[in-house]
Automatic annotation (TrEMBL):
SUPFAM superfamilies in alphabetical order: TM1631-like
Superkingdom assignment: Bacteria
Database matches in PANTHER family: UNCHARACTERIZED PROTEIN YECE, UPF0759 PROTEIN YECE
Protein name (database record): DUF72 domain-containing protein
Transmembrane parts of this sequence: none
UniProt-listed Gene3D superfamilies: Protein of unknown function UPF0759
Length: 297
Protein backbone atom coordinates (compact mmCIF):
# COMPACT_ATOMS: atom_id res chain seq x y z
CA UNK A 1 0.00 0.00 0.00
CA UNK A 2 1.85 3.08 -1.27
CA UNK A 3 -0.83 5.60 -0.29
CA UNK A 4 0.62 8.19 2.08
CA UNK A 5 4.21 7.04 1.60
CA UNK A 6 6.92 9.57 2.48
CA UNK A 7 10.65 9.60 1.82
CA UNK A 8 11.65 10.45 5.40
CA UNK A 9 9.23 8.95 7.93
CA UNK A 10 11.56 9.96 10.77
CA UNK A 11 10.43 13.57 10.19
CA UNK A 12 6.72 12.78 10.69
CA UNK A 13 4.96 13.41 13.99
CA UNK A 14 3.17 10.09 14.48
CA UNK A 15 1.59 10.98 17.83
CA UNK A 16 -2.04 9.91 17.82
CA UNK A 17 -4.49 12.83 17.94
CA UNK A 18 -6.85 13.05 20.88
CA UNK A 19 -10.07 11.08 20.65
CA UNK A 20 -12.74 13.13 18.90
CA UNK A 21 -15.37 14.42 21.37
CA UNK A 22 -18.15 12.89 19.27
CA UNK A 23 -16.47 9.49 19.59
CA UNK A 24 -16.54 9.77 23.37
CA UNK A 25 -20.17 10.85 23.23
CA UNK A 26 -21.07 7.95 20.96
CA UNK A 27 -19.24 5.24 22.91
CA UNK A 28 -20.74 6.45 26.17
CA UNK A 29 -24.11 5.37 24.77
CA UNK A 30 -22.96 1.74 24.82
CA UNK A 31 -22.40 -0.50 27.78
CA UNK A 32 -18.80 -1.22 28.66
CA UNK A 33 -17.66 -4.50 27.18
CA UNK A 34 -15.03 -6.51 28.99
CA UNK A 35 -14.08 -8.61 25.98
CA UNK A 36 -14.37 -6.93 22.58
CA UNK A 37 -14.59 -8.68 19.23
CA UNK A 38 -11.11 -8.22 17.77
CA UNK A 39 -9.97 -9.10 14.25
CA UNK A 40 -6.42 -8.37 13.15
CA UNK A 41 -4.94 -9.26 9.79
CA UNK A 42 -2.96 -8.31 6.71
CA UNK A 43 -4.20 -7.18 3.31
CA UNK A 44 -2.91 -10.13 1.27
CA UNK A 45 -2.04 -13.75 1.74
CA UNK A 46 0.11 -14.48 -1.31
CA UNK A 47 3.72 -15.63 -1.01
CA UNK A 48 4.98 -13.02 -3.44
CA UNK A 49 4.18 -10.23 -0.97
CA UNK A 50 4.61 -12.03 2.35
CA UNK A 51 8.05 -13.48 1.70
CA UNK A 52 9.42 -15.32 4.69
CA UNK A 53 6.03 -15.73 6.35
CA UNK A 54 5.28 -19.18 4.96
CA UNK A 55 7.30 -22.22 6.03
CA UNK A 56 9.18 -23.94 3.24
CA UNK A 57 6.94 -26.33 1.36
CA UNK A 58 3.65 -24.54 2.09
CA UNK A 59 1.29 -25.39 -0.75
CA UNK A 60 -1.96 -23.70 0.26
CA UNK A 61 -1.26 -20.13 1.30
CA UNK A 62 -4.81 -19.24 2.46
CA UNK A 63 -5.06 -22.41 4.53
CA UNK A 64 -1.82 -21.56 6.35
CA UNK A 65 -2.56 -17.83 6.65
CA UNK A 66 -6.00 -18.45 8.15
CA UNK A 67 -4.50 -20.66 10.85
CA UNK A 68 -2.20 -17.80 11.89
CA UNK A 69 -4.59 -14.84 11.64
CA UNK A 70 -8.32 -14.59 12.31
CA UNK A 71 -9.04 -12.22 9.40
CA UNK A 72 -7.94 -10.76 6.09
CA UNK A 73 -8.57 -7.34 4.57
CA UNK A 74 -9.58 -8.71 1.19
CA UNK A 75 -8.21 -6.20 -1.33
CA UNK A 76 -8.34 -8.65 -4.24
CA UNK A 77 -12.07 -7.98 -4.65
CA UNK A 78 -11.28 -4.36 -5.55
CA UNK A 79 -9.55 -5.39 -8.78
CA UNK A 80 -11.97 -8.00 -10.10
CA UNK A 81 -15.36 -9.55 -9.48
CA UNK A 82 -15.07 -13.04 -8.06
CA UNK A 83 -17.73 -15.69 -8.53
CA UNK A 84 -19.92 -17.08 -5.79
CA UNK A 85 -18.06 -20.37 -6.18
CA UNK A 86 -14.74 -18.66 -5.41
CA UNK A 87 -16.13 -17.14 -2.23
CA UNK A 88 -17.41 -20.58 -1.26
CA UNK A 89 -13.95 -22.07 -1.79
CA UNK A 90 -12.36 -19.41 0.40
CA UNK A 91 -14.95 -20.07 3.07
CA UNK A 92 -14.34 -23.82 2.99
CA UNK A 93 -10.57 -23.42 3.40
CA UNK A 94 -10.67 -21.31 6.56
CA UNK A 95 -11.40 -22.03 10.25
CA UNK A 96 -14.88 -21.43 11.64
CA UNK A 97 -13.96 -18.19 13.44
CA UNK A 98 -12.12 -16.63 10.49
CA UNK A 99 -13.58 -13.55 8.77
CA UNK A 100 -13.06 -11.83 5.43
CA UNK A 101 -13.34 -8.02 5.17
CA UNK A 102 -13.66 -7.48 1.41
CA UNK A 103 -13.25 -4.20 -0.45
CA UNK A 104 -15.94 -3.13 -2.89
CA UNK A 105 -14.87 -3.22 -6.53
CA UNK A 106 -13.22 -0.35 -8.36
CA UNK A 107 -16.08 -0.30 -10.86
CA UNK A 108 -18.27 0.98 -8.03
CA UNK A 109 -15.88 3.36 -6.30
CA UNK A 110 -13.50 4.57 -9.00
CA UNK A 111 -14.95 4.02 -12.46
CA UNK A 112 -18.62 4.87 -11.87
CA UNK A 113 -17.88 6.91 -8.73
CA UNK A 114 -21.02 5.69 -6.92
CA UNK A 115 -23.32 6.73 -9.75
CA UNK A 116 -25.55 4.10 -11.35
CA UNK A 117 -23.93 1.30 -9.38
CA UNK A 118 -26.94 -0.55 -7.97
CA UNK A 119 -26.60 -3.52 -10.33
CA UNK A 120 -22.85 -3.78 -9.69
CA UNK A 121 -23.42 -3.65 -5.92
CA UNK A 122 -26.10 -6.34 -6.10
CA UNK A 123 -23.87 -8.66 -8.14
CA UNK A 124 -21.02 -8.11 -5.68
CA UNK A 125 -23.20 -8.76 -2.64
CA UNK A 126 -24.83 -11.85 -4.17
CA UNK A 127 -21.38 -13.41 -4.56
CA UNK A 128 -19.85 -12.21 -1.28
CA UNK A 129 -22.89 -13.48 0.64
CA UNK A 130 -21.58 -17.00 0.03
CA UNK A 131 -19.01 -16.35 2.73
CA UNK A 132 -22.00 -16.54 5.09
CA UNK A 133 -20.93 -16.21 8.74
CA UNK A 134 -17.34 -15.54 7.64
CA UNK A 135 -18.29 -12.28 5.95
CA UNK A 136 -17.02 -9.37 8.03
CA UNK A 137 -17.57 -5.68 7.33
CA UNK A 138 -17.46 -4.81 3.63
CA UNK A 139 -15.58 -1.60 2.96
CA UNK A 140 -15.68 1.12 0.34
CA UNK A 141 -12.52 3.08 -0.43
CA UNK A 142 -13.29 6.21 -2.43
CA UNK A 143 -10.86 7.67 -4.96
CA UNK A 144 -8.48 10.33 -3.63
CA UNK A 145 -10.06 12.86 -6.02
CA UNK A 146 -13.62 12.10 -4.86
CA UNK A 147 -14.22 15.34 -2.94
CA UNK A 148 -17.10 16.73 -0.94
CA UNK A 149 -18.72 18.18 -4.08
CA UNK A 150 -19.88 14.59 -4.53
CA UNK A 151 -21.65 14.50 -1.18
CA UNK A 152 -25.03 13.76 -2.80
CA UNK A 153 -23.58 10.65 -4.47
CA UNK A 154 -22.15 9.47 -1.16
CA UNK A 155 -25.41 10.14 0.62
CA UNK A 156 -27.47 8.29 -2.01
CA UNK A 157 -25.09 5.33 -1.79
CA UNK A 158 -25.41 5.18 2.00
CA UNK A 159 -29.19 5.46 1.84
CA UNK A 160 -29.44 2.65 -0.72
CA UNK A 161 -27.04 0.29 1.06
CA UNK A 162 -28.93 -2.82 2.31
CA UNK A 163 -29.67 -2.63 6.01
CA UNK A 164 -28.13 -5.42 8.02
CA UNK A 165 -24.96 -5.71 5.91
CA UNK A 166 -22.08 -4.03 7.79
CA UNK A 167 -20.32 -1.35 5.76
CA UNK A 168 -17.28 0.85 6.38
CA UNK A 169 -16.30 3.82 4.19
CA UNK A 170 -12.93 5.50 3.66
CA UNK A 171 -12.93 9.00 2.21
CA UNK A 172 -9.55 10.31 1.07
CA UNK A 173 -9.88 13.76 -0.46
CA UNK A 174 -8.52 16.42 1.96
CA UNK A 175 -11.71 18.49 1.60
CA UNK A 176 -13.61 15.96 3.70
CA UNK A 177 -11.36 16.76 6.67
CA UNK A 178 -10.39 20.43 6.23
CA UNK A 179 -13.88 21.93 6.52
CA UNK A 180 -15.50 21.27 9.90
CA UNK A 181 -19.00 21.66 8.48
CA UNK A 182 -18.30 19.11 5.74
CA UNK A 183 -16.65 16.72 8.20
CA UNK A 184 -19.58 16.90 10.60
CA UNK A 185 -22.06 16.45 7.78
CA UNK A 186 -20.65 13.21 6.39
CA UNK A 187 -19.77 11.70 9.78
CA UNK A 188 -23.30 12.42 11.02
CA UNK A 189 -24.62 10.67 7.90
CA UNK A 190 -22.49 7.63 8.72
CA UNK A 191 -23.58 7.62 12.35
CA UNK A 192 -27.27 7.84 11.49
CA UNK A 193 -26.96 4.84 9.16
CA UNK A 194 -24.58 2.69 11.22
CA UNK A 195 -21.66 3.03 8.78
CA UNK A 196 -18.13 2.70 10.16
CA UNK A 197 -15.85 5.67 9.43
CA UNK A 198 -12.48 4.16 8.48
CA UNK A 199 -9.36 5.55 10.11
CA UNK A 200 -6.17 5.41 8.02
CA UNK A 201 -2.84 5.71 9.83
CA UNK A 202 -0.28 6.51 7.15
CA UNK A 203 2.74 8.79 7.21
CA UNK A 204 1.76 11.26 4.51
CA UNK A 205 -1.89 11.84 5.39
CA UNK A 206 -2.24 12.64 9.07
CA UNK A 207 -5.59 14.35 8.40
CA UNK A 208 -7.09 10.87 8.01
CA UNK A 209 -6.35 10.24 11.69
CA UNK A 210 -9.65 11.90 12.54
CA UNK A 211 -10.39 9.64 15.53
CA UNK A 212 -14.10 10.00 14.81
CA UNK A 213 -15.97 6.73 15.20
CA UNK A 214 -19.50 6.67 13.84
CA UNK A 215 -20.73 3.35 15.20
CA UNK A 216 -19.53 0.64 17.58
CA UNK A 217 -16.71 -0.39 15.26
CA UNK A 218 -13.13 0.82 14.96
CA UNK A 219 -12.04 -0.05 11.42
CA UNK A 220 -8.37 0.90 11.22
CA UNK A 221 -6.08 0.57 8.21
CA UNK A 222 -2.55 0.93 9.51
CA UNK A 223 0.27 1.59 7.03
CA UNK A 224 3.78 1.10 8.36
CA UNK A 225 6.72 2.96 6.86
CA UNK A 226 9.27 0.14 7.18
CA UNK A 227 10.85 2.22 9.93
CA UNK A 228 11.52 1.61 13.63
CA UNK A 229 8.71 4.04 14.48
CA UNK A 230 6.21 1.48 13.17
CA UNK A 231 6.42 -0.36 16.49
CA UNK A 232 6.03 2.64 18.77
CA UNK A 233 3.05 3.73 16.67
CA UNK A 234 1.44 0.36 17.33
CA UNK A 235 2.10 0.76 21.05
CA UNK A 236 0.06 3.96 20.94
CA UNK A 237 -2.75 2.16 19.14
CA UNK A 238 -2.88 -0.51 21.83
CA UNK A 239 -3.36 2.19 24.45
CA UNK A 240 -5.98 4.01 22.38
CA UNK A 241 -8.03 0.87 21.69
CA UNK A 242 -7.92 0.04 25.40
CA UNK A 243 -9.25 3.55 26.10
CA UNK A 244 -12.07 3.09 23.59
CA UNK A 245 -12.88 -0.38 24.87
CA UNK A 246 -13.22 1.05 28.38
CA UNK A 247 -15.67 3.60 26.97
CA UNK A 248 -17.79 0.89 25.32
CA UNK A 249 -16.14 -0.05 22.00
CA UNK A 250 -17.11 -3.61 21.12
CA UNK A 251 -15.72 -4.26 17.62
CA UNK A 252 -12.09 -3.74 16.61
CA UNK A 253 -11.01 -4.46 13.03
CA UNK A 254 -7.34 -3.62 12.53
CA UNK A 255 -5.49 -4.31 9.30
CA UNK A 256 -1.77 -3.86 8.85
CA UNK A 257 -0.12 -2.79 5.60
CA UNK A 258 3.45 -1.92 4.79
CA UNK A 259 5.15 -0.12 1.93
CA UNK A 260 7.08 -3.40 1.71
CA UNK A 261 4.42 -5.94 2.65
CA UNK A 262 7.01 -8.57 3.65
CA UNK A 263 7.10 -6.98 7.12
CA UNK A 264 3.33 -6.86 7.66
CA UNK A 265 3.14 -10.21 9.51
CA UNK A 266 5.98 -9.11 11.79
CA UNK A 267 4.14 -5.93 12.74
CA UNK A 268 0.86 -7.80 13.15
CA UNK A 269 2.49 -10.34 15.44
CA UNK A 270 3.99 -7.57 17.56
CA UNK A 271 0.65 -5.77 17.71
CA UNK A 272 -1.29 -8.87 18.75
CA UNK A 273 1.25 -9.72 21.43
CA UNK A 274 0.75 -6.27 22.98
CA UNK A 275 -3.01 -6.15 22.41
CA UNK A 276 -3.82 -9.50 24.06
CA UNK A 277 -2.99 -8.51 27.67
CA UNK A 278 -4.29 -4.96 27.21
CA UNK A 279 -7.77 -6.11 26.19
CA UNK A 280 -7.88 -9.45 27.99
CA UNK A 281 -8.08 -11.42 24.76
CA UNK A 282 -6.14 -14.38 23.45
CA UNK A 283 -5.54 -13.98 19.72
CA UNK A 284 -2.98 -16.34 18.25
CA UNK A 285 0.41 -14.73 17.68
CA UNK A 286 1.03 -15.49 13.99
CA UNK A 287 3.91 -17.70 12.99
CA UNK A 288 5.37 -17.54 16.48
CA UNK A 289 6.98 -20.95 16.12
CA UNK A 290 8.79 -19.79 12.98
CA UNK A 291 9.54 -16.23 14.03
CA UNK A 292 13.27 -16.77 13.90
CA UNK A 293 12.97 -17.26 10.14
CA UNK A 294 11.52 -13.78 9.68
CA UNK A 295 13.95 -10.91 9.86
CA UNK A 296 13.52 -7.24 9.19
CA UNK A 297 14.93 -5.87 5.99
Amino acid sequence: MKFGKVAQPELVNFTLPETHPKTIELLNCFEETATPNVFVGCAKWNKADLKGFYPRGTKDELDYYSRQFNSIELNATFYRQFTAEQFEKWKAKTPKDFKFFPKLGQEISHWKRLQGVQDAVNIYLDSAAHLQEKLGTIFLQLHANFGNKNFDRLQNFVLSWPKGIPLAIEVRHPDWFEDTVVFNEFTQLFEEHNIANIIVDTAGRRDMMHMRLTNNEAFVRYVGANHSSDYTRLDEWVARLKEWNDLGLKNIHFFIHQNLEVESPLLAGYFIKKLNPALGINLKIPNEENSQQMTLL
